[in-house]
Amino acid sequence: MGHALSVIWSVLLLLLICGTVFVIMSSNSDSGKKVSWILVVTLLPAVGIVLYVVFGLDMRNPSWFLKKHRKFFETFERNADAGTKALLFGRETERKIREDYRELSRLLTNGNGTTVSEDNRIEVITSGHRKFDALVNDILNARHHIHMEYFYFKKDDGSRRIRELLMKKAREGVRVRFIYENIANIKIAPRYYNEMKKAGVEVVKFTNPKFSLFRLSAQLNYRDHRKIVVIDGNIGYTGGMNISDDYFLRWRDTHLRITGNAVSSLQYSFMNSFISSGGRIEEDFSPYFPEHEAFEVGDRLVQVVPDEPDFQWPVLQMGAVWTVQHARDYLYVQTPYFVPPEPLLQALKSTALKGTDVRIMLPAKADLFFMGPANRAYFQECLEAGVKIYEKTGRFIHSKTIVSDDYLSIIGSANMDNRSLELSYEVNAYIYDENMARMNREIFLKDQEECHQVLLEEWLRRPWYRKAIQTVMKLFSPLL
User: Fold this and answer.
1) Is the pTM of the predicted complex or chain greater than 0.85?
2) Residue 362: which H helix or E strand, with range?
C-alpha cells in the first residue's frame, strides 16, 4: 500500500513539474528567466513550484489591466474636463521634441503613459537634506490637497516628521491622500496608519486583494516601487528617494521637484493607483488639474511614464533599450542594481561596440548582501564589449538616472534590473532638454570623482571563488 502511494505521489509530482515547465515555456518571459525558473522547479520541485506561482507568474495581460483599472477610467472619464484630457493625451507637443526622439515619445505612450508636456520647471535634487526641507515647506503651504505614494515610508525621525505634517494638514481641512506599499512596509504595525486615518488622512494599501493563490502572487511579488508627491496640483516630486533617514541623511540619490504641466501627469498616475487600490475621489477633478502658467524661461519638455506588470508592454524596458540603442556620443547610467534583462544587456554591449561612450555607475558596496555578486555577474561581458564600469565609494548611491547625447535625461524609480523592468510598479520622467542633459552629465562626472573604475585586466584576476559565486548569481539573477 505504501509503495503504491509513493508511486502515485511520484507520478503526480512529475505531472505537476511537467505542467509547470509547460506554463513557464508558454509565458512571454525572456529565455534567461525561463531557464532560471525551470532550474528552480526541477531541482527543488515542491518549493520551486510554490515559488513560481507566488513570484513567477506573468501578469502582462491587457484584459487584467482594464479590469483592475476600470473604476479609475470610468471616474476619470466622468469627472475630468476636455482640457485636462487634451493636456494629458493630446499629441501636439510631440512636435516640439527633437525629430529623432519623437518615436521614443510615441513608444512611451503605449500602456497608460501620458504625452509630453511643456511649460515645466525642474529642480534636480541630489541632496537628501534638500529634498526633506523642500518637501516640508511645500506640505506646510498646501491649501487644497496633498497626494503621496511611496515604496518606503518608515518610522525614523524624518519619516515621523513628514507623517506629523500630513496629519496636521488633514486636521486643517486639506485633503490628504496616502498610498503605502504593504510588503515593503510590513514591519510597520497597522496602528501607525490608523493614527493617520483618525487625523483625517485617507490611507489606502496599494495591494490588498482577497485571498487566492493568484492574488497572493500579485500581493507578494508585484510591488509599488513609485515615489510620487503632488501638492495642490501645482508641485510634484518623483525620483529615487523614499521617505526615510537613509535618503534624507546618508545615501546619495537623485530626485525631481517639478512645477508645470508635468505635475498633471504625476497626478493622473497617483489618482489611478489610489482609486484602483480602493480609494475614492468622486468630486469634480478640476481642482486636481489646475491650469499652469506658461514659463518664458526655464521651459522643459517632460514625459511622465508609469509602468506596471499588467500593462501589455514593458514600456520602461522598451524605452531603456531604445535610448541605449540610439545613443551616438555617450550614455551615462547610474543604478544601484544592475541585473539587466537580456534585451537591455545586448543593447548596452552593441552600443559600446559601435564606439559610443557607455558608462555605468554602481555602488562599490550594495545595500543587500546578494546584490553585490549579482551586480558584478555581468561585468566581464560588458567590459569586453567596451562598457566602462565605475564603482562609487563612500555614500551608497541609490540614483536611477540615464543621460545621453546632451539631450535626453531619464530620472525615476526604476532600477536597471528585472524586478523594476518586469515586475514592479514604477514611474520615470523623460526630460527632452539640452541644458538639463548637460547638468545631469556634470552630476554624473562629479560622482565619478568618487569612483573606482573597474578595468578588464584587473577583473580577470579576481579570485576563483568570487567568479564561482558570480556565475551562480548570474544563473538566478533573472529571478531577483
Assistant:
1) yes
2) strand 357-363
Out of 119, 224, 232, 417, the active site residue is: 232
Over residues 191-225, the pLDDT tens digits come to 999 999 999 999 999 875 544 455 555 556 778 99
11 vs 273, more confident: 273
Known catalytic residue: 205? Answer: no
Return the DSSP state at 415: -
Q: Check the CA dihedral 136-138-140-146 and report its sign.
A: negative
231 vs 186 pLDDT, higher one: 231
Torsion of CA 58, 59, 60, 64, to 10 degrees: 150
403 CB neighbour count, 10 Å cutoff: 27
Beta-bridge partner residues of 330: 357
Element (H, E) at 301: strand 301-307
58 has catalytic annotation: no
Catalytic choice (405, 417, 433, 447): 405
Query: 263 near 292, Cβ under 8 Å?
Result: yes
Q: Is 232 a catalytic residue?
A: yes
Catalytic annotation on 329?
Answer: no
Phi, psi of 107 (to 5 degrees): -60, -45
Q: DSSP state, 397?
A: B
Give CA–CA dist 137/60, Å, rounded: 40
Told to judge if 69 belongs to the known catalytic residues of this protein, a careful annotator would answer no
Active site residue 400: yes
Q: Annotated catalytic residue: which of 225, 255, 392, 474?
A: 225
All structural domains of the chain, each given as residue ranges with its CATH number in brackets, are: 2-55 (no CATH), 62-89+119-299 (3.30.870.10), 315-479 (3.30.870.10)
Give me the catalytic one of 147, 154, 392, 398: 398
Place of cell 529615487: 240
Q: Are 263 and 248 in contact (CB under 8 A)?
A: no
Catalytic site residue from 205, 227, 326, 349: 227
Q: C-alpha grid cell for residue 184?
A: 515593503
11 pLDDT more than 70: no
Residue among 145, 147, 292, 400 flagged as catalytic: 400
